[in-house]
Write a structure and sequence with these properties.
Elements (H helix, E strand, L loop, with lengths): L5 H4 L3 E7 L4 H4 L4 E4 L2 E12 L2 E6 L2 H7 L3 H15 L2 E5 H8 L6 H8 L4 E6 L14 H9 L3 E4 L6 E5 L6 H15 L11 E4 L4 E3 L1
Antiparallel strand pairs: 1-3, 2-3, 3-4, 5-6, 6-8, 7-8, 7-9, 9-10
Length: 208
């Protein structure tokens, strides 16, 4: 009864990102928006906390049931998702230090502090958090703070890595690294993409 009541459901509609090509069969059955080589799809968020979230995938027939359009879903999701699934932006050095907790290597902390600034972006539950790259002004504000454009490394559908774009870093090298990580460390259904993206602060667009 909850799911058939659109007035209740519309407050819980959120989006997530998946790879377009790898999910073509599924995308025939569900409302989606293609952006770059990705697809924005929609869920009803049933429950969420810092340990996880429970969602129901929205199918094409639900649009008829609720008498709404795909654009209606999109606008609701863009409003709801940042509010219901708050983003979390963490400095990579802090993440590594946390992972190394209890390991006797004080010099490691000093080395991390000299790393090229890199950030891990996801939501609080760290599930399906790659969509945070489309939260309004999030990347733009980070670019303004760092005074640079950003590379976006698609770790998985759950998170992305962000760091300075500069002339010393080759996108070909980054693409090779992403492919190697995807092949050895990421479950096939959790692969977001096999190449790096770039956010340009002048245009406000993500490109690849």
């Amino acid at each position: 009864s909850f799911f058939t009541n659109y007035e209740q459901v519309k407050k819980r509609i959120v989006f997530k990102l998946i790879n377009y090509e790898q999910n073509k069969n599924l995308l025939q059955k569900i409302p989606h928006i293609k952006i770059l080589d990705l697809a924005i799809i929609f869920n009803c968020l049933v429950d969420a906390d810092e340990t996880g979230n429970a969602t129901i995938l929205i199918y094409n027939q639900h649009l008829s049931l609720w008498n709404i359009t795909k654009d209606d879903l999109y606008h609701l999701a863009m409003k709801n998702t940042p509010a219901l699934l708050t983003y979390e932006l963490r400095d990579m050095s802090d993440v590594l230090i946390e992972l190394m907790a209890g390991v006797p290597c004080n010099s490691m902390k000093e080395e991390f502090e000299y790393m090229v600034p890199m950030y891990v972006l996801s939501n609080k539950s760290k599930l399906n958090g790659s969509g945070c790259i489309f939260y309004h002004n999030l990347l733009h504000n980070l670019c303004e703070k760092l005074e640079c454009d950003l590379y976006i490394l698609p770790s998985s559908i759950h998170e992305v890595l962000l760091f300075h774009k500069n002339e010393h870093t080759s996108s070909l090298d980054l693409n090779q690294m992403i492919n190697e990580v995807n092949a050895s460390h990421v479950l096939p259904e959790e692969i977001l993409s096999d190449h790096v993206y770039c956010f340009e602060r002048a245009s406000g667009f993500i490109t690849y």
